[in-house]
Amino acid sequence: MVGALPRDRSVVTLKMLSRKSTIHCLFASPFMAESTQNSSSMAPGFLVASPKLDGSPFERAVILLVHHDEEGAMGYIINKPLEVDFGTLIASVNEEIEEAILPERFEQTVYFGGPVRMEQLWVIFKHEGEQARKAPFDSVEPADIDFAPDWTLSPSGRLIEGFALHETDDYIMPVLGYAGWGAGQLEGELEEGSWLVADFDEALIRQTAPADCWKRALAKIGVDPTAFLMMGKMGSA
Fold first, then answer.
1. Domains of the chain
2. Its domain of life (predicted)?
3. For residue 210, how many other CB atoms are within 10 A of its CB?
Protein backbone atom coordinates (compact mmCIF):
# COMPACT_ATOMS: atom_id res chain seq x y z
CA MET A 1 0.00 0.00 0.00
CA VAL A 2 1.26 3.47 -0.89
CA GLY A 3 0.55 6.29 1.56
CA ALA A 4 -2.75 7.49 2.99
CA LEU A 5 -5.53 9.15 1.06
CA PRO A 6 -6.94 12.61 1.78
CA ARG A 7 -9.87 12.60 4.18
CA ASP A 8 -12.21 13.26 1.25
CA ARG A 9 -12.40 9.60 0.31
CA SER A 10 -13.84 10.27 -3.15
CA VAL A 11 -10.93 12.35 -4.48
CA VAL A 12 -7.25 11.52 -4.97
CA THR A 13 -4.92 14.46 -5.56
CA LEU A 14 -2.23 14.56 -8.21
CA LYS A 15 0.38 14.87 -5.48
CA MET A 16 0.30 11.08 -5.56
CA LEU A 17 1.67 11.17 -9.12
CA SER A 18 5.09 12.46 -10.16
CA ARG A 19 5.36 14.78 -13.16
CA LYS A 20 7.75 12.35 -14.82
CA SER A 21 5.41 9.38 -14.53
CA THR A 22 2.37 11.35 -15.63
CA ILE A 23 3.92 12.82 -18.76
CA HIS A 24 6.37 10.23 -20.02
CA CYS A 25 5.12 6.78 -19.06
CA LEU A 26 1.37 6.72 -19.62
CA PHE A 27 1.61 4.23 -22.45
CA ALA A 28 4.07 1.79 -20.91
CA SER A 29 4.60 -1.56 -22.58
CA PRO A 30 1.69 -3.95 -21.97
CA PHE A 31 2.52 -6.70 -19.52
CA MET A 32 -0.70 -8.56 -18.94
CA ALA A 33 -0.70 -12.19 -19.95
CA GLU A 34 -3.56 -14.11 -21.53
CA SER A 35 -6.34 -14.78 -19.05
CA THR A 36 -6.30 -18.19 -17.37
CA GLN A 37 -9.42 -17.71 -15.26
CA ASN A 38 -11.43 -20.76 -14.31
CA SER A 39 -14.79 -21.56 -12.76
CA SER A 40 -13.53 -20.66 -9.27
CA SER A 41 -12.55 -17.15 -10.35
CA MET A 42 -14.14 -14.20 -8.57
CA ALA A 43 -13.76 -12.09 -11.72
CA PRO A 44 -15.66 -10.29 -12.97
CA GLY A 45 -16.93 -8.93 -9.70
CA PHE A 46 -16.31 -6.27 -7.07
CA LEU A 47 -14.24 -6.12 -3.91
CA VAL A 48 -15.70 -3.79 -1.30
CA ALA A 49 -13.25 -2.50 1.30
CA SER A 50 -13.95 -3.12 4.97
CA PRO A 51 -13.10 -0.62 7.75
CA LYS A 52 -9.89 -2.65 8.27
CA LEU A 53 -8.49 -0.74 5.30
CA ASP A 54 -9.28 2.76 6.59
CA GLY A 55 -6.19 4.97 6.36
CA SER A 56 -4.84 3.13 3.32
CA PRO A 57 -5.23 3.83 -0.42
CA PHE A 58 -8.09 1.31 -0.31
CA GLU A 59 -10.19 3.16 2.27
CA ARG A 60 -13.85 2.71 1.27
CA ALA A 61 -12.75 1.52 -2.16
CA VAL A 62 -14.83 -0.47 -4.59
CA ILE A 63 -12.56 -2.48 -6.88
CA LEU A 64 -13.61 -3.90 -10.22
CA LEU A 65 -11.90 -7.29 -10.30
CA VAL A 66 -11.01 -8.07 -13.92
CA HIS A 67 -8.76 -11.09 -13.41
CA HIS A 68 -8.44 -13.78 -10.73
CA ASP A 69 -6.92 -17.24 -10.81
CA GLU A 70 -4.52 -19.39 -8.79
CA GLU A 71 -1.61 -17.13 -9.78
CA GLY A 72 -3.11 -13.90 -8.47
CA ALA A 73 -5.65 -11.16 -9.11
CA MET A 74 -5.90 -7.75 -10.73
CA GLY A 75 -8.47 -4.99 -10.32
CA TYR A 76 -9.20 -1.27 -10.57
CA ILE A 77 -10.70 1.11 -8.02
CA ILE A 78 -13.76 2.73 -9.60
CA ASN A 79 -14.77 5.30 -6.99
CA LYS A 80 -11.71 7.54 -6.49
CA PRO A 81 -11.55 10.29 -9.14
CA LEU A 82 -8.30 12.13 -9.73
CA GLU A 83 -7.93 15.88 -10.08
CA VAL A 84 -7.14 15.66 -13.79
CA ASP A 85 -9.30 15.16 -16.85
CA PHE A 86 -8.73 12.71 -19.70
CA GLY A 87 -8.15 15.36 -22.36
CA THR A 88 -5.51 17.22 -20.36
CA LEU A 89 -3.75 13.96 -19.54
CA ILE A 90 -3.56 12.89 -23.18
CA ALA A 91 -2.44 16.39 -24.25
CA SER A 92 0.38 16.24 -21.68
CA VAL A 93 1.67 13.11 -23.41
CA ASN A 94 1.34 14.37 -26.98
CA GLU A 95 0.99 18.14 -27.39
CA GLU A 96 0.73 17.74 -31.17
CA ILE A 97 -2.76 16.29 -30.92
CA GLU A 98 -4.11 18.64 -28.23
CA GLU A 99 -6.21 20.70 -30.66
CA ALA A 100 -7.75 17.52 -32.13
CA ILE A 101 -8.90 16.12 -28.78
CA LEU A 102 -12.67 16.11 -28.43
CA PRO A 103 -13.88 18.95 -26.14
CA GLU A 104 -15.87 16.52 -24.00
CA ARG A 105 -12.69 14.61 -23.15
CA PHE A 106 -11.56 17.65 -21.15
CA GLU A 107 -14.55 16.94 -18.90
CA GLN A 108 -13.91 13.19 -18.71
CA THR A 109 -12.92 12.01 -15.23
CA VAL A 110 -9.77 9.95 -14.74
CA TYR A 111 -9.76 7.54 -11.79
CA PHE A 112 -7.10 6.33 -9.37
CA GLY A 113 -7.11 2.62 -10.18
CA GLY A 114 -4.72 1.54 -7.44
CA PRO A 115 -1.22 2.03 -6.02
CA VAL A 116 0.60 -0.30 -8.45
CA ARG A 117 2.16 1.19 -11.61
CA MET A 118 0.56 4.56 -11.14
CA GLU A 119 2.41 5.79 -14.24
CA GLN A 120 0.31 3.47 -16.45
CA LEU A 121 -2.94 4.57 -18.05
CA TRP A 122 -5.63 2.02 -18.88
CA VAL A 123 -9.13 2.43 -20.21
CA ILE A 124 -12.09 0.33 -19.12
CA PHE A 125 -14.80 0.46 -21.75
CA LYS A 126 -18.04 -1.11 -22.89
CA HIS A 127 -18.71 -1.73 -26.59
CA GLU A 128 -21.97 -0.08 -27.58
CA GLY A 129 -23.51 0.28 -31.00
CA GLU A 130 -22.16 -0.42 -34.48
CA GLN A 131 -19.88 2.61 -34.33
CA ALA A 132 -18.00 1.00 -31.47
CA ARG A 133 -16.63 -1.64 -33.88
CA LYS A 134 -15.23 0.85 -36.42
CA ALA A 135 -11.63 2.06 -36.60
CA PRO A 136 -9.79 2.92 -34.43
CA PHE A 137 -11.87 0.81 -32.04
CA ASP A 138 -12.07 -2.36 -34.13
CA SER A 139 -8.72 -3.97 -33.38
CA VAL A 140 -7.87 -6.44 -30.63
CA GLU A 141 -4.64 -5.74 -28.76
CA PRO A 142 -2.60 -8.61 -27.20
CA ALA A 143 -2.86 -7.12 -23.70
CA ASP A 144 -6.61 -6.44 -23.78
CA ILE A 145 -8.76 -8.28 -21.24
CA ASP A 146 -12.40 -8.98 -22.11
CA PHE A 147 -13.55 -9.41 -18.52
CA ALA A 148 -17.34 -9.42 -19.04
CA PRO A 149 -19.69 -9.50 -22.05
CA ASP A 150 -18.96 -6.34 -24.11
CA TRP A 151 -16.59 -5.03 -21.42
CA THR A 152 -12.84 -4.68 -22.08
CA LEU A 153 -9.77 -3.39 -20.27
CA SER A 154 -6.96 -2.06 -22.47
CA PRO A 155 -3.55 -0.39 -22.01
CA SER A 156 -3.22 0.25 -25.77
CA GLY A 157 -1.89 3.72 -26.53
CA ARG A 158 -3.49 3.57 -29.99
CA LEU A 159 -6.90 2.76 -28.54
CA ILE A 160 -6.64 5.29 -25.72
CA GLU A 161 -5.70 8.10 -28.10
CA GLY A 162 -8.52 6.92 -30.35
CA PHE A 163 -10.99 7.50 -27.56
CA ALA A 164 -9.55 10.99 -27.05
CA LEU A 165 -9.78 11.94 -30.73
CA HIS A 166 -12.81 10.18 -32.17
CA GLU A 167 -16.52 10.08 -31.44
CA THR A 168 -17.74 6.73 -30.12
CA ASP A 169 -20.83 5.29 -28.51
CA ASP A 170 -18.64 3.33 -26.10
CA TYR A 171 -18.77 4.04 -22.38
CA ILE A 172 -15.20 4.67 -21.17
CA MET A 173 -13.46 4.97 -17.80
CA PRO A 174 -9.77 6.00 -17.87
CA VAL A 175 -7.76 4.79 -14.85
CA LEU A 176 -4.21 5.34 -13.59
CA GLY A 177 -2.62 2.50 -11.65
CA TYR A 178 -4.14 -0.78 -10.54
CA ALA A 179 -4.49 -3.09 -7.54
CA GLY A 180 -2.70 -6.43 -7.74
CA TRP A 181 -2.34 -9.55 -5.62
CA GLY A 182 0.07 -12.48 -5.85
CA ALA A 183 -0.87 -16.13 -5.54
CA GLY A 184 -3.10 -16.63 -2.48
CA GLN A 185 -2.73 -13.04 -1.30
CA LEU A 186 -6.28 -11.91 -2.03
CA GLU A 187 -7.70 -15.09 -0.50
CA GLY A 188 -5.75 -14.31 2.67
CA GLU A 189 -7.09 -10.76 2.80
CA LEU A 190 -10.62 -12.08 2.36
CA GLU A 191 -10.14 -14.50 5.25
CA GLU A 192 -8.94 -11.72 7.54
CA GLY A 193 -11.97 -9.60 6.68
CA SER A 194 -10.38 -6.87 4.58
CA TRP A 195 -12.84 -7.27 1.69
CA LEU A 196 -16.39 -8.26 0.90
CA VAL A 197 -17.27 -9.68 -2.53
CA ALA A 198 -20.11 -8.48 -4.73
CA ASP A 199 -21.31 -9.75 -8.10
CA PHE A 200 -20.52 -7.76 -11.23
CA ASP A 201 -23.11 -5.04 -11.87
CA GLU A 202 -22.32 -2.40 -14.48
CA ALA A 203 -24.65 0.06 -12.72
CA LEU A 204 -21.95 0.50 -10.07
CA ILE A 205 -19.59 1.69 -12.80
CA ARG A 206 -21.94 3.67 -14.99
CA GLN A 207 -24.77 4.94 -12.83
CA THR A 208 -23.27 5.54 -9.39
CA ALA A 209 -21.53 8.69 -8.18
CA PRO A 210 -18.09 7.99 -6.67
CA ALA A 211 -19.15 9.32 -3.27
CA ASP A 212 -22.08 6.88 -3.19
CA CYS A 213 -20.40 3.82 -4.70
CA TRP A 214 -19.13 2.18 -1.49
CA LYS A 215 -22.49 2.41 0.29
CA ARG A 216 -24.37 1.22 -2.78
CA ALA A 217 -22.04 -1.76 -3.21
CA LEU A 218 -22.59 -2.75 0.42
CA ALA A 219 -26.36 -2.40 0.02
CA LYS A 220 -26.27 -4.76 -2.97
CA ILE A 221 -24.88 -7.52 -0.76
CA GLY A 222 -27.26 -6.75 2.11
CA VAL A 223 -24.81 -4.97 4.43
CA ASP A 224 -25.82 -1.82 6.30
CA PRO A 225 -22.94 0.70 5.93
CA THR A 226 -23.46 2.28 9.35
CA ALA A 227 -23.47 -1.08 11.15
CA PHE A 228 -20.47 -2.17 9.08
CA LEU A 229 -18.48 0.88 10.18
CA MET A 230 -19.44 0.38 13.81
CA MET A 231 -18.30 -3.24 13.68
CA GLY A 232 -15.01 -2.09 12.22
CA LYS A 233 -14.47 0.44 15.02
CA MET A 234 -15.26 -2.19 17.64
CA GLY A 235 -12.86 -4.62 16.01
CA SER A 236 -10.02 -2.09 16.06
CA ALA A 237 -10.62 -0.94 19.61
1. 14-122+175-223 (3.40.1740.10)
2. Bacteria
3. 17
